[in-house]
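Bug report (template v2)

What were you trying to do?
Predict the complex of my protein with acetamide.

What happened?
Run completed; filing so the output is reviewed.

Input:
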Amino acid sequence: MKYLFLAISCLFSFISFAQQSPIIPQPAELTMGQGNFLVTNKTVIVTKGGGLNKSASFLQAYVKKMYGFVLPVSATAEHKGNIVLSYARMDYSIPGAYQMEVNKNGVVIEGDNEAGVFYGVQSLIQLFPFSKSASLSIPQLLVKDQPRFAYRGMHLDVARHFFPVDFIKKYIDFIAMHKMNTFHWHLTEDQGWRIEIKKYPKLTEIGAYRNGTTIGRYPGTGNTNTRYGGYYTQEQIKEIVKYAADRYVEVIPEIELPGHSSAAIAAYPELSCFPDSSTKVPAKVAWNGPRTGKQVQQTWGVFEDVFAPTETTFKFLENVFDEVIQLFPSKYIHIGGDECPKEAWKKSAFCQQLINEKGLKDEHELQSYFIQRVEKYLNSKGKQIIGWDEILEGGLAPNATVMSWRGEQGGIEAAKQKHNVIMTPGGWMYFDHKQTKNEDSVTIGGYTTVQKVYSYDPIPKALTAVEAKYVLGAQANVWTEYMTNTSKVEYQIFPRMSALSEVLWTPKEKKDWNNFEKRLLHQFKRYDWMGMNYSKAFYDPANNSTETTKNLKKPQNIS
Ligand code: ACM
């Protein structure tokens, strides 16, 4: 009887799965049809309209790489029996809407704009099987789809640990496959400066390398005693920005100021309030190499030596931003603004005099003065700034967008002040947290399951409908103190990134955890098929106590 019940429930879940699509994020509207369509090397990708080559090339390259055959691309081939990429006007305020029909006569994808067509291609790819074959059978269906939020982001800290260009491209592919559109690239930190600036070569000669790294969880069990670092050349950055643009992903660089600037100060000590003071090394940590002079940090935390608000520093930052602006066509530049201790400014006679001279109340208003000067410069170059929510302290710069990370309060305040907001609250959007109670690798702490990520709604309840319009979207942050290699980064982001994509894309009323869980099982197969590493914490009922996980056979090596 028990076995009969099991067999029936398996059949039931198979049937319900067959009636669902395997698409993540869940489309706004989806109707499964009857029967299939076969994609073979005779199937032509027909581009009907300009600007469709990126989508056509992406689809062609994916099929070639994963299945080993080439779909021809043509602007003039007949539509019947082929995959047609085209445009159709759709009445959505956020760009990226598309519809896709698969029927016995082929596939038609129509986008509201180029990105919409690309998202249609991403959905089509998700219909393909997970085995190498000369003909790909896809189900007949009709999808009408559009994004819920305009800003759909993933952040990556490449300073605490450095990742090669090939992985950055892979990361951008992960973003694109989830119909997300922003890569927030955290390029400068206390532990390393990772972007070539031609006017200041010491930023990378000195600032891109540290003499060692804390071993284990802070304060650690020792030091690697090995020089560590690296940086991206301007040529590599241009290549990455183009790679991203070809996938409709915008790259937003972050240049941290006034805090988290030890690496820049190690290269150019005159940027500090106290150029002749040695970098403070936390007493509890093991250190490699000289303890005197300015040093690139070897351990994690928040450090007192920050940029001095001098004309020297502002000129330096303007020169740095002049080069950054040339490399990144994004509307936004992220200027950091978080975790800037005020000790040095309190002790500095120059800062105290500046506070008096400018009629500022305290060091928080001095930070606000600092940010506003940088904002003014960047605005004059046609760029908008994003800053972490500390930029609210001492008064918000007039045009700034706030990234709310210390919970939702900063986002709520900023929206009430009519400023744009991106939600990245730690409790839901920090993918450096552990995702299983049984975590056996070192993480920063926290506990954020895939189910918790899925439950997040970027619109805080405290906002009125009018205020809610200032919430552009949300983003997950990936701080890499405890991600020493690319495989660990993948483990930390998957499957949580798949849950996030649904938070950002799927209409709120269509979000359904029980339905997502079933599609997630299929998504795990996709990760395997594409060679992506991921956490299996989902299978452990200690993390998710839902119907689906209760009945699952656990794979080996959960965690
Ligand atoms: C942050 O996590 N310090 C923005």
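What did the reviewer find?
Residues 46 and 282 are 62 Å apart (CA to CA). The radius of gyration is 25 Å.
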